[in-house]
Amino acid sequence: MRESRSLGQWFFRLVSTVLLVLAASLSPSPQASAPAAPSIVYFPQTGHHVSEPFLSFWLQHGGIRIFGYPVSEP
């Protein structure tokens, strides 16, 4: 009787493990995210850079077209 119970427990653990591995392999893999936007941009025209948080503001409000190239460091 004890042998059949240990065999049953072993079989249950085996099936549980196989199901867990199968479920993990069938779950959707995480998608590669888009490359992160740069947090700093260098302008060789002036030798200066623009970095966050000003970079976001600068880009959203016209960038070079409105503000021109950076002429100093933040």
Compile the SSE list and pairings.
Elements: H1 2-26, E1 40-43, E2 48-51, H2 54-60, H3 63-67
Antiparallel strand pairs: 1-2
Explain this structure.
Keywords: Signal. Residues 1-34 form the signal peptide. The protein is mostly helical and 74 residues long. It has helices spanning 2-26, 54-60, 63-67, and strands at residues 40-43, 48-51. Strands 1-2 form a two-stranded antiparallel ribbon. A hairpin with a 4-residue loop joins strand 1 and strand 2. The relative contact order is 0.10. The model has no long low-confidence stretch (mean pLDDT 80).
Structure keywords:
74 residues; two-stranded antiparallel ribbon; signal
Short summary:
Keywords: Signal. With 74 residues, the chain is mostly helical.
- Look at the helices and sheets and give the structural class: mainly alpha
* Record field, number of beta strands: 2
Uncertain segments of ≥5 residues (pLDDT<50)?
Answer: none
Mean pLDDT: 80
The geometry reads as rod-shaped
The number of distinct helices, counting runs of at least 4 residues, comes to 3
Keywords: Signal
Signal peptide: 1-34
